[in-house]
């Protein structure tokens, strides 16, 4: 069982930045692909970004390309989502997700492809 804990959400003005973090309780992310999703009330959960455990494969939603960056620390203990040039429409509850994927490969944007989820961290962007 992989327990994920997100942190770093908050309230920020449009144009500002936030850095989200995701940690796996009691373990590293070695051999695990990790992704960020977001959801607003009444809408489906939306893929934001993800990368393979080695970092060699990365995928971003078109809506965040050039503004958001997913990264891992060298010890693969924490995965970060750096969010720059935030827009009002980025407001959502942001979730970290993981799945065992030792051979890397395709980063699926489909929520059902991910096995483990955190409880989310709220990001609110004021216009």
Helix-strand layout with pairing:
Layout lengths: L3 E4 L2 E4 L4 E7 L7 E8 L6 E6 L6 E3 L7 E5 L5 E6 L8 E9 L15 E2 L3 E6 L1
Parallel strand pairs: 2-11
Antiparallel strand pairs: 1-3, 3-8, 4-5, 4-9, 5-6, 7-8, 9-10, 9-11
Outline:
By secondary structure, the protein is mainly β. The protein contains no helices and eleven strands. The chain has strands at 4-7, 10-13, 18-24, 32-39, 46-51, 58-60, 68-72, 78-83, 92-100, 116-117, 121-126.
User: What does the largest sheet look like?
Assistant: 7 strands, mixed
* Structural class by SSE content: mainly beta
Low-confidence stretches: none
**Rg:** 13 Å
Instruction: Report the helical percentage.
Output: under 10%
């Amino acid at each position: 069982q992989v327990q994920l804990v997100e942190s770093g959400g908050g309230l920020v003005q449009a144009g500002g930045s936030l850095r989200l973090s995701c940690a796996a309780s009691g373990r590293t992310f070695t051999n695990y692909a990790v992704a960020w999703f977001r959801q607003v009330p009444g809408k489906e959960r939306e893929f934001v970004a993800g990368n393979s455990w080695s970092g060699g494969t990365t995928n971003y939603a078109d809506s965040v390309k050039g503004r958001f960056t997913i990264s891992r620390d060298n010890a693969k203990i924490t995965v970060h989502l750096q969010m720059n040039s935030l827009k009002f429409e980025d407001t959502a509850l942001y979730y970290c997700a993981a799945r065992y994927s030792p051979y890397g490969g395709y980063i699926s944007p489909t929520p059902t492809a991910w096995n483990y989820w955190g409880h989310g961290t709220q990001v609110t962007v004021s216009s």
